[in-house]
Amino acid sequence: MKPIILAGLLFVSLFGAGCTAGQNFDARLNSIVGPYLFSIAGWESEAIPQEIGQWLSGGQEEVDDEIQLVTEYFGYVKRIRALKSEIGVTRAGDEKIDLSPLEDELSRLEEKRTALAGTVDGIIERQIRDTLARQGIFNPVEGSGSTFPPVNFRLEQLPCVLVISPRDRIESIREFTLRSGLVREEKEAIEGRVDELEVSSLVTEIGGIATYPSLVDSQTSLRSAVDTATEEWLHQYLVFKPLGFRYVLDLTGISRDYEIATMNETLAGMVSEEVGSMVYEEYYSEYESDANQTPGQKFDFSGEMRAIRKTVDEYLARGEIEPAEEFMEQKRRYLASEGYYIRKLNQAYFAFHGAYADKPAFISPIGLELEELRSRSASLKDFLDTAAAMTSRQDLKASLR
After folding, report:
1. pLDDT at 17
2. Most exposed among 4, 159, 177, 295, judged by the fewest C-beta atoms under 10 Å?
3. How many CB atoms neighbour CB 95 within 10 A?
4. What is the pTM of this model?
């Protein structure tokens, strides 16, 4: 998820910075999203003192078997997801079934998961930090051997994000962090009111936020939690590098550059996936991840999404907005028939997911260019340092010549 380290600046820019939509647009938008906003400053004002208090008290107590504790936590998470699904399906049915045994088990597991969360994130933090150190990745300031910013995250229920794109092109022009726990009806009500402003909007779930401490979804899998925690740390790290600083300028609207945003997000994703693989292999290679794909799966979701995006771009380039939107809705239903449910497929969906050049919704060559740069790099650190020093897409192209 995009970094929100400079939360105050970003908040002001979202509501006050001028852009193509105009101040009247911002004022109307503010009135819609205001009641649903998640206060990053408020959350950090509570989280940071807790972190300081824990540090002053000597940190977390030692655990005899850290690996066992972590896998136990994610075992609870997996069972909790299964129970919620079972309860939801049962409630949707016509039969009168007593759900109290399932609800009681769910409540007990939620309590156990919550009790372990603080210890589990501390264990994973150390594992990520040690893995980064072995790769020589410590600090955006050369010559320092200590990890900065400190790897620090919380496993919690995450807020949502409202993404807004123009209808005539795919580009994120506004993003707002909304409070967690919004039900479908609330999401669709927000989107409906925003869409009346003649834009495309989407309220979507996220896997993590680069606040400090970072927020990572408490309901995700073990591998995903490791990758996401690493990626959010990399966003914090990159803010102190030219590429990340330019990305902050893009986020705040001071200097928009969609290619810089894509480079930053893709770099963080590639490095975090590589580091996450190292962590997982060293500590959890015997743990069966629930993220594995079902053997024999033949439907090419990534290829289908890229084809959809390409066709939508062609429609929009011709100014055919409504045909593009009708096409996306037809494809959304088709994907659902293949077992891939997307609640809303529109310009805002592609604007949000398209910032990650290694993801199915993206068709830009930036991902391939970064992959080529990685293949030419002597080490992961060399790749990160080279890409982090860039200030434009032209720098990336020049590095490959």
Report:
1. 38
2. 295
3. 5
4. 0.80
Which two three-digit tokens encode residue 401?
């010549």
Whether the bond between 3 and the residue before it is cis, its omega within 30 degrees of 0, is no
List the 174-178 sheet strands across, edge first: 174-178, 160-166, 199-204
Instruction: List pLDDT tens digits, range 161-181.
Output: 999 999 999 988 888 999 998
What secondary structure letter does DSSP report for 34? G
Walk across the sheet containing 214-217 and list its strands: 153-156, 214-217, 208-209
Q: Are 178 and 170 in contact (CB under 8 A)?
A: no
Name the packing angle between helices 40-56 and 7-16 (round to 10°): 180
Phi, psi dihedral angles at 262 (to 5 degrees): -65, -45
Those residues whose C-beta lies under 8 Å from the C-beta of residue 6, and which sit 6 or more positions away, are 239, 248, 252
Q: What is the pLDDT averaged over residues 126-142?
A: 91
DSSP state of 60: S
Q: pLDDT by residue (tens digit) across 95-119?
A: 678 888 999 999 999 999 999 998 9
Q: Among 36, 11, 120, 40, which Cα is nearest to 76's?
A: 120
Number of helices followed by number of strands (H, E) in the chain: 15, 6
Q: Is 47 exposed, middle or buried (0-12, 13-18, 19+ CB in 10 A)?
A: middle
In the Cβ-directed half-sphere of 287, how many Cα atoms lie within 13 Å? 23
Would the pLDDT of 26 be above 70? yes
| Spatial distance between the Cα atoms of 25 and 17, rounded to a whole number of angstroms | 11
**pLDDT per residue as tens digits for the range 6-21:** 444 343 333 333 344 4
pLDDT of 207 reads: 86
Query: Across residues 260-280, what is the average pLDDT?
Result: 94
Distance set, CA 287 to CA 67, 278, 291 (Å): 9, 14, 11
Sheet strands (E) in 171-280? 174-178, 199-204, 208-209, 214-217
What gap in Å lies between CA 73 and CA 123, rounded to an integer? 12
Q: Alpha-carbon distance 259 to 246, whole Å?
A: 11
| CA–CA separation, 396 and 246 (whole Å) | 14
Helix (H) / strand (E) containing 146: none
Residue type for 274, please? E
Q: What is the pLDDT of residue 94?
A: 59
Say which residue the tokens 């590639």 belong to. Answer: 270
Amino acid at site 93: G
d(CA 208, CA 143): 30
> What amino acid is encoded at 282 in this protein?
E
